[in-house]
Write a structure and sequence with these properties.
Elements (H helix, E strand, L loop, with lengths): L1 H7 L5 H31 L3 H31 L9 H23 L4 H35 L1
Helix pairs in contact: 2-3, 3-5, 4-5
């Protein structure tokens, strides 16, 4: 940890380092997802419409993952000061995201789709899941900002 702080050259607290690391991890995971999904759709799409829809879905998921990284890194800075009663909507968003992902994947497994259809379905479920997580994190950030303003 001290080597990382020396390498950055700025005095950072542990929470600031955790926030930056979580932001970068979300960005890199989103970028990897975007690249892999684009390569998959270029190779396996049957026509231009499937290709365009698949690349668009993967870009939307990339944007949501990056947004989630920004919001959660902001929360990592202030989470020790937040009482649990102010974080209930955020925690409900996390739980709802997991439920959406699990239920969506189990529903997709019952359908008889080709690879491209399954991948698009997974991207939709991942996008919905990340949306609920982002809304929960945004709600907590908003509550904290409103509390500081008044």
């Amino acid at each position: 940890m001290k080597a990382v702080l020396r390498l950055l050259g700025t005095p950072l607290t542990r929470d600031q380092v955790d926030a930056r690391v979580s932001r970068w991890i979300c960005f890199l995971c989103g970028l990897a997802q975007l690249c892999l999904a684009t390569v998959f759709f270029v190779r396996h799409a049957h026509d231009g419409l499937e290709l365009a829809l698949g690349v668009t879905l993967s870009f939307v998921v990339f944007a949501l993952v990056v947004l989630c990284g920004v919001l959660t890194s902001r929360l990592a800075m202030i989470v020790p000061m937040i009482p649990l009663r102010l974080r209930l909507v955020e925690l409900a968003g996390y739980a709802l995201g997991i439920v959406i992902l699990v239920a969506g994947c189990s529903f997709l497994s019952t359908l008889s789709l080709e690879r491209v259809g399954v991948t698009m379905g997974l991207l939709v479920m991942l996008g919905l899941s990340m949306s609920s997580i982002c809304v929960g994190a945004w709600w907590t950030c908003r509550r904290i900002s409103v509390g500081r303003a008044s």
